[in-house]
Amino acid sequence: MANPLTREQLEELERFPTPMVCNAIEMFGVRRQNEGFMMPDIACRFPDLGVMVGYAATATFRAWEPDASGKVVDMAAYYDHILAQPFPRVLVAHDLDERPVGALFGEVNSSLHRALGCAGHITDGGARDLDECRAIGFHLFSGCVQVSHAYVHLEDFGGPVAVGGLTVPPGGLLHADKHGVCLIPAEIAGEVAAACEAMEALERPLIDLARSPEFTPLRFAAARNDMKEQYQEACKRFRR
After folding, report:
1. Rounded to two decimals, what is the model's pTM?
2. Considering the domain 32-184, what is its CATH architecture?
């Protein structure tokens, strides 16, 4: 894991919506533009809570049947895994059941993980107790909403997990809001906020022109061409 961001750097990232962060990451050319984010089946349950930024702790779980393997998850070690991640933290959990039936997180688990320094929970399974979790400001991103915990139990923790088409490693820096979840590459994390500011500055003239009485299609096309040239120059600042 690269050195974690400072509190000030994290607060800078929280200023920007997740789509802007995705746009900014593209400026670095470190991954394909169709990678690095979760698919839309992972839904934000509390859009009004705004942006969530945090470092991933990871786990897998099942809920269809009681655990019959005889394997006992060491919960003290699980808590240590969470606490080993930089603050703030996010618990990212993959549901191993073929069809989700039981929620790993409701009011109790959200309260516990909040006490462990987690800002929220992301899963391809379900979540429940929405009102109670919203009341404590705990972010939930999930594949569905469920009424029961069924036979939910942890299977493992501490390894990479695939959720929503994105593989999340322990310690991965996540940026999420009502639009979805994005993984910020560690090697550029400290520069992403500056790239967001650069991207905003590039887009603003186009937005202002489109909303202006001076707008014409020809003027917009010319402004867009200018923006493309400026974008290529701006990318040189961030490309490795």
Report:
1. 0.95
2. 3-Layer(bba) Sandwich (3.50)
Q: What is the DSSP string of the chain?
A: -PPPPPHHHHHHHHTS-HHHHHHHHHTTTSS-TT-SB--TTSEES-GGG--EEEEEEEEEEE-SS---S-----HHHHHHHHHHSPSSEEEEEEE-SSS--S-SBSHHHHHHHHHTTEEEEEESSEE--HHHHHHTT-EEEESEE-S--TT-EEEEESS-EEETTEEE-TT-EEEEETTEEEEEPGGGGGGHHHHHHHHHHHHHHHHHHHTSTT--HHHHHHHHHHHHHHHHHHHHHH--
Is the sign of the CA dihedral 166, 40, 179, 140 positive or negative?
negative
Position 15 confidence tier, pLDDT thresholds 50, 70, 90: very high
- Cα 35 from Cα 28, distance rounded (Å): 14
Measured CA to CA, the distance from residue 226 to residue 206 in angstroms comes to 10
> In this structure, what token pair is assigned to residue 119?
């800002």
What amino acid occupies position 123? T
pLDDT of residue 2: 66
